[in-house]
Design goal:
- There is one protein chain.
- With 241 residues, this protein is an alpha/beta fold.
- 43% of the residues lie in helices and 18% in strands.
- 38% of the residues are buried.
- The chain contains eight helices and nine strands.
- Helix 1 (20-33) packs parallel to helix 2 and helix 5 (140-157) packs parallel to helix 8.
- The chain has a seven-stranded mixed sheet. Strands 6-9 form a two-stranded parallel ribbon.
- The termini are far apart.
Length: 241
């Protein structure tokens, strides 16, 4: 699947020292086997577990042209981590994903293939539509919360995608740069607002079925406060977009 394009992966990290070496190895293998030019931008928010030190070792192994470190002085939030990473991206396409194996790099060639075939601006992973899509490792409560969040957002916002709360996506860089200038949401709301504004702005969006697997190491960052903020955010988007 050779391509003349370069792909930038942005990995926000916080306490991911055990996950980072494996996800970087998988990303390197995926891009190398498919003859694709790439860079991985690691945005670490001063992880107390030493994630940045691990990232520095990975940079020596894989070369600074492939591993770009853009750390920040503290835990400043997921949305701003992506904005920080985008500012340093040199690829013509940007892939945003989690560093905890929730999003497996093996899906990336499918994202790229869909983009090439449809000439779309965004490919978004979906856990809820298409052959092979699904969620693994969640209990019933977590599945109901996630599905309910998507149904709620779909009812209020009519976004035209089946998984609005997903965070595994491929963007044309110039489209993403434009969208982040318009986004006001933070944290988990950032991804949702990106998609709502992309659809409202007329950008072409395609979906790719993915298998979402709960994180291997570490703790989920989703809590009650985030769920409340999510509901407020959906209503805010309904009023303003």
């Amino acid at each position: 699947m050779a391509s003349k394009e370069k792909y930038t992966v942005i990995l926000p990290t916080y306490n991911e020292r055990r996950n980072l070496p494996i996800i970087v190895w998988l990303l390197n293998r995926t891009f190398t086997e498919n003859d694709l030019e790439y860079e991985i931008i690691i945005v670490d928010d001063a992880s107390p577990d030493g994630t940045l030190e691990v990232a520095k070792q990975l940079q020596k192994v894989y070369n600074p042209s492939h591993i770009v470190l853009k750390p920040r002085p503290g835990k400043l939030g997921l949305g701003t981590a992506y904005v920080h990473g985008i500012a340093h991206a040199t690829g013509s396409f940007v892939i945003i994903m989690d560093a905890d194996f929730s999003h497996h790099p093996s899906s990336i060639p499918s994202f790229i293939r869909i983009q090439q075939q449809t000439d779309c601006d965004i490919v978004t992973g979906t856990r809820y539509a298409g052959q092979g899509a699904g969620v693994h490792g969640w209990d019933l409560k977590r599945k109901l919360v996630s599905r309910g969040a998507n149904i709620f957002a779909d009812t209020v916002l009519r976004p035209g995608v089946s998984d609005l709360t997903g965070s595994f996506r491929l963007y044309r860089r110039e489209v993403l740069e434009q969208l982040v200038k318009e986004v006001a949401g933070k944290g988990f709301m950032f991804q949702m607002e990106l998609m709502v504004r992309a659809k409202a702005g007329g950008w072409k969006v395609e979906e790719c079925p993915i298998r979402f697997v709960d994180r291997v190491y570490g703790e989920s960052k989703l809590g009650g406060d985030e769920i409340v903020e999510y509901a407020k955010g959906v209503l805010s988007l309904w009023l303003n977009v």
